[in-house]
Amino acid sequence: xxxxxxxxxxxxxxxxxxxxxxxxxxxxxxxxxxxxxxxxxxxxxxxxxxxxxxxxxxxxxxxxxxxxxxxxxxxxxxxxxxxxxxxxxxxxxxxxxxxxxxxxxxxxxxxxxxxxxxxxxxxxxxxxxxxxxxxxxxxxxxxxxxxxxxxxxxxxxxxxxxxxxxxxxxxxxxxxxxxxxxxxxxxxxxxxxxxxxxxxxxxx
Length: 204
Known about the structure:
Layout: H1 4-14, H2 17-31, H3 39-59, H4 64-84, H5 92-116, H6 129-132, H7 134-148, H8 154-168, H9 172-197
Helix pairs in contact: 1-5, 2-4, 2-5, 3-4, 3-9, 4-5, 4-8, 4-9, 5-7, 5-8, 7-9, 8-9
């Protein structure tokens, strides 16, 4: 097995598990912060910067590990939305837990498939994967569409409740930024999935 496989497993762990505990702790902390401290605004700004920077950087990636890495940066921004409105919206905790559950499953799924093919580093290297390994290819497709938030995935419902929480907490502009970034993220996920669209065509 290539040495890149353990590295991918470590990346999957570091981009998923620590976020769960850290974000739950953050939302609990913000719920008890003094009203005079405008931490929610700071968190909201960090959320906007994280999702926008992550998506912009992911646009130019052809290496699948780097693409997923920058994708996790953008996902942190989405995850910070309910954190920003902790104590302001009753939906904050529920939306964060729902989104974290969906994100953990889909992110680990995508990384697991990548780890199964350590020699396939670039998007182009995945051409032919569906024909040879249909189950793994299907899992990756579900994982990537899940990260976008395509219905009926858990992340889709998590994003709806997260948007509702942010709007309820007075961060309507942040909801707009998040929605625009969600649509923009389709670009680099679909670049990866575009290779699969050609797999059903007979080779020449």
